[in-house]
Specification:
single chain; MscS_channel_C_sf; mechanosensitive monoatomic ion channel activity; alpha+beta; SH3 type barrels; signal; transmembrane helix; three-stranded antiparallel β-sheet
C-alpha cells in the first residue's frame, strides 16, 4: 500500500495547483520475459565472479535495505499533513533523480566492462540470427499486406457505395469495417506465427527459443495490434474504413506520429530494456527505461504544443455542432485546457516512473486504457441514446385524436430522460476513472454492503419516480380524454371544473406521496415530517377557516351541479350570468354589466334559472266590469299568435297554454294567471313577447287594463258642506271664472 500512496503523492505533486488528484491504484507487475531457472543461476554466478558487477549488486542491496527501513519508519511514524507529504515527495523526487543519475553512470561502466570481456563471435552470431527473425517477420507481414491490398480496396469501395437508403449505408460500412479488422488480424497472426516458427525451428536450437526472440515476438504482436487499432480509427486501410471523421491530411499526420511513438516506446520497453536487464545489469536497464520514457514524454509534449491551436479549433467546431448545452460547455472547456491536461499527464508518467519504474508504467498503461475505454464507451452510449431518445414519439391518428396532448406530453419527458441518462453515464464513467487512478476499488465497493445498499436505494428511487410518472401520465391522459369534445360527448363547464380540480388534487397527492416514499427509501425518518405537516395543516385550518369553508362549499356545489358557467343564477342576493367559477369563488355579471366575485362561503342559497326547463308566469289584471271568460279567450288567442312566431316557438316546450283562472279579486283589478313552459333561460324572452301580444289583443277587444286612479276631496266645514272649488276655464275669448271664483 506504501508504493500506491507514494505514487499518488507523485501525481499530486505535479497537478496539485490545478486541483486534479488522481493517484495510482493497483499497479500490475512489470511485463518482462522470464528466463529458465538454470539461466538465472548462471547469471548470478557471472555477477558474483565479476568485481564491478558484484560491487554494483551490493550497492543495490544496501539501497533496497535503506528503502525498506525508511518505509518501516514511515509506517510507524504518525500521519503527516498534506503539506508535509508534498514536501517529502519533493525531496524523494530530487533524491531519486540524483540517485538514478549516479546509478546510470555506474551501470554504464559495468556494462562496458562486461562487453569488453565478452567474446564477440557469439554476440555477432546471436545478432545475426535475431536479424533473420526480424527480417522474416517483417517480410511476411509486408508481403501479406501487399497481397491483401486488393481486398482492402474492394472493402473500401463497398463501404463507400452511396446506393440504397442511409441506414443500409451504415450497415454496409460496419460490415466492411469488421471484415477489414478480421483480415488485418489474420495478417498479423500469420506474420507472428511465421516468426514463431523461424525462432523455434530455423535459428538456434530446434524447439527452443531465446529470451530476446520471445521478447521481440511479443513486442511485434502488441505493436501491430496497437497499429491496427490506429488504422481502424484513422482509416489506415481505406478512406471509408475508419471511425474518426477527420481530414485525410490529419489522418496521415496522426497515423505516422502515433506509429513512430508506438514503435519507439513498445520495442524499447518490451525488448531493449528486458534484454539489457538480462544480459547486462538491471541498473543500466533502469537507466535506459527512464531515457526511453523521457524521450517519449518530451516528444509527446512537443507534439501537444505544436497542435494546441489546431486541436482547440477542432474541439470548438465540434462544440458548435453539439445539440445539448452540456456537450457544448464540456467541449468548449476542453478546447481551452486540453493541452494543460495532456502535459500534466505526461509529467505524471515521468515522475511516477522515476520513483517506481517497475510499477509505474504498467499502472499508467492499465489506468490510461481503462480511462480511455470508459470515456469512449460513455461517449458512444450517450451519442446512441441521443440519437434514439431525441427522435420524436409518433402516435397514431386515432390516439392523437382521442389524446391530443399525449404526444406532446411524452415528448416533453424526452429531454429530462436524456439528461438523467447522461448523468448516470457520467457517474459510471467517473467511477471507472476513479477506480483506475486511485486505491478505490469499484468492484469491491459494489459488492460491499454500503455499495449494494446505495445502488439498491438508487434503483428503488428510480423505480418509484418512474411509477409515479406513469401514474400521472395515465391520469392526465384520462382527464384529457374526458375533456376532449372529439373523443365523445362535449364536456360541460361543470365537468371541466371538476376534472381540473381532480387533476390538481392528483398531482399534489402524487408529489407528496412520492416525496415521502423517496425520503423514506433513502433512509430519512419521515415521522417528524408527517407530524410537522399535521401541525402545519391544523394551524392553517384554524387560521384560514374562511378559505377552507370556501373550498369545501365550492366542492359540494360543483359535485351537486348547482351552478355551471353560463347559467343565470341568483346567489348571495345577486342575479347574473356565471362567467367564472373556481374551487373557492363564483364570478357573476348582472344585467347592468357589473361583475361580482362571490366567495362560496357567502352563498347559502342558489337559484338557477337554467336547469331542465322554465316557466313564464303571467298574471294579468282586468277591470271589474269586464268579462273574465272573454279575457281568457283573448289570452289564448295571444298565445296562438305567439306560437306562430318560429323564433318564439323554438323556445316553447308545451304548445298548450296553462290557464290557472282568476287568482285574485284585487283592489282595482280581477287577476287572471297563465303559465308557459319554455326552455331553461328562454322564459324571459317568451314572457316579453307574450306581454306585447296580450296588450294588443286586450286593446283591440276594448278590455280595460286597470291602472291606479286618484279621487280628490276638498274637505267639509262643520255643517258638512263642502266649500266651493274655484275653477278657472280658459277659452278662446279669455279666461272664464266658474261660480264661486
Amino acid at each position: 500500500m506504501t508504493h500506491k500512496l507514494t505514487a499518488f503523492l507523485a501525481f499530486v505533486f505535479v497537478i496539485a495547483m490545478l486541483g486534479l488528484t488522481p493517484a495510482p491504484g493497483h499497479a500490475a507487475e512489470p511485463a518482462s520475459g522470464s528466463a529458465s531457472e538454470q539461466a538465472g543461476h548462471q547469471r548470478l554466478a557471472d555477477l558474483l565472479e565479476d568485481e564491478a558487477a558484484r560491487t554494483a549488486l551490493v550497492e543495490q542491496l544496501r539501497k533496497l535495505g535503506e528503502e525498506e527501513a525508511a518505509r518501516a519508519v514511515e509506517s510507524a511514524a504518525p500521519t503527516q499533513t498534506l503539506a508535509g507529504q508534498v514536501a517529502g515527495l519533493t525531496q524523494s523526487v530530487a533524491q531519486g533523480v540524483v540517485s538514478e543519475g549516479a546509478s546510470a553512470v555506474d551501470a554504464l561502466g559495468v556494462a562496458w566492462t562486461q562487453l569488453a570481456a565478452a567474446d564477440p563471435a557469439p554476440l555477432a552470431w546471436a545478432a545475426g540470427e535475431f536479424a533473420v527473425l526480424v527480417a522474416v517477420t517483417w517480410i511476411v507481414f509486408r508481403v501479406l499486406s501487399a497481397a491483401a491490398g486488393a481486398l482492402f480496396r474492394a472493402l473500401d469501395r463497398y463501404a463507400g457505395a452511396r446506393d440504397g437508403p442511409r441506414a443500409l449505408g451504415w450497415v454496409r460500412r460496419s460490415l466492411a469495417l469488421v471484415a477489414a479488422v478480421a483480415l488485418d488480424l489474420s495478417i498479423i497472426g500469420l506474420s507472428w506465427l511465421a516468426g514463431y516458427g523461424v525462432a523455434l525451428f530455423v535459428i538456434g536450437e530446434t524447439g527452443s527459443m531465446r529470451i530476446q526472440e520471445s521478447l521481440y515476438l511479443n513486442a511485434f504482436l502488441l505493436v501491430e495490434l496497437i497499429r491496427m487499432a490506429l488504422r481502424v480509427l484513422l482509416s489506415g486501410r481505406g478512406e471509408q474504413l475508419g471511425l474518426l471523421p477527420i481530414a485525410a491530411e490529419d489522418k496521415a499526420y496522426w497515423s505516422a506520429w502515433a506509429s513512430r511513438m508506438v514503435f519507439f516506446v513498445a520495442y524499447g520497453l518490451m525488448l531493449v530494456v528486458p534484454v539489457i536487464d538480462h544480459y547486462l545489469t538491471p541498473a543500466l536497464g533502469r537507466a535506459v527505461f527512464i531515457a526511453i520514457l523521457l524521450g517519449a514524454v518530451l516528444r509527446a509534449a512537443v507534439v501537444v504544443m505544436q497542435n494546441r491551436q489546431r486541436a482547440s479549433e477542432a474541439l470548438e467546431r465540434l462544440a458548435g455542432r453539439m445539440q445539448t448545452p452540456f456537450g457544448r460547455i464540456a467541449l468548449t472547456i476542453g478546447a481551452r485546457i486540453w493541452h494543460v491536461v495532456a502535459l500534466i499527464y505526461l509529467m505524471a508518467i515521468l515522475v511516477t516512473s522515476i520513483l517506481y519504474p517497475e510499477q509505474a508504467l504498467p499502472f499508467m498503461i492499465s489506468a490510461t486504457g481503462q480511462t480511455l475505454l470508459a470515456v469512449g464507451l460513455g461517449i458512444a452510449l450517450a451519442a446512441l441514446l441521443t440519437q434514439v431518445i431525441l427522435r420524436r414519439i409518433r402516435l397514431g391518428d386515432e390516439l392523437r385524436m382521442k389524446f391530443p396532448l399525449l404526444e406532446a406530453r411524452l415528448n416533453a419527458y424526452v429531454p429530462s430522460a436524456l439528461k438523467i441518462a447522461r448523468f448516470v453515464i457520467l457517474a459510471v464513467v467517473v467511477a471507472f476513472i476513479v477506480d483506475a487512478w486511485t486505491p478505490f476499488d469499484l468492484g469491491a465497493w459494489v459488492s460491499s454492503d454500503a455499495g449494494a445498499r446505495l445502488l439498491g436505494r438508487a434503483l428503488s428511487v428510480a423505480v418509484i419516480v418512474t411509477l409515479a410518472l406513469l401514474a400521472w401520465l395515465v391520469v392526465a391522459s384520462w382527464i384529457e380524454f374526458r375533456l376532449n369534445p372529439q373523443a365523445g360527448m362535449a364536456p360541460n363547464p361543470r365537468a371541466r371544473t371538476l376534472l381540473t380540480i381532480f387533476r390538481n388534487a392528483i398531482a399534489i397527492a402524487l408529489v407528496v406521496v412520492t416525496t415521502m416514499v423517496v425520503l423514506a427509501e433513502v433512509g430519512i425518518n419521515i415521522a417528524p415530517l408527517l407530524a410537522g405537516a399535521g401541525v402545519l395543516g391544523l394551524a392553517i385550518g384554524f387560521g384560514a377557516q374562511k378559505l377552507v369553508q370556501d373550498v369545501i362549499t365550492g366542492v359540494f356545489i360543483q359535485l351537486e351541479r348547482a351552478i355551471d358557467v353560463g347559467d343565470l343564477v341568483t346567489a348571495g342576493g345577486i342575479t347574473g350570468t356565471v362567467e367564472r367559477m373556481t374551487i373557492r369563488s363564483l364570478g357573476l355579471r348582472d344585467m347592468h354589466g357589473t361583475y361580482h366575485l362571490l366567495p362560496f362561503s357567502s352563498v347559502d342559497t342558489v337559484s338557477n334559472y337554467n336547469r331542465d326547463f322554465a316557466f313564464h308566469v303571467g298574471e294579468y289584471g282586468i277591470g271589474y266590469r269586464e268579462d273574465s271568460d272573454e279575457a281568457i279567450v283573448h289570452l289564448r288567442a295571444a298565445f296562438d299568435e305567439l306560437l306562430a312566431d318560429a323564433a318564439q316557438r323554438a323556445q316553447i316546450l308545451d304548445p298548450v297554454l296553462e290557464v290557472h283562472g282568476v287568482t285574485a279579486l284585487a283592489d282595482n283589478s280581477v287577476n287572471i294567471r297563465v303559465r308557459i313552459k319554455t326552455l331553461p333561460g328562454g322564459q324571459f324572452g317568451v314572457g316579453r313577447a307574450y306581454n306585447r301580444l296580450v296588450k294588443r289583443h286586450f286593446d283591440a277587444a276594448g278590455i280595460e287594463i286597470p291602472y291606479p286612479q286618484m279621487t280628490l276631496h276638498f274637505g267639509e266645514d262643520k255643517q258638512g258642506k263642502a266649500p266651493p272649488a274655484r275653477v278657472r276655464i280658459e277659452g278662446a275669448g279669455g279666461p272664464l271664472l266658474a261660480p264661486g271664483g
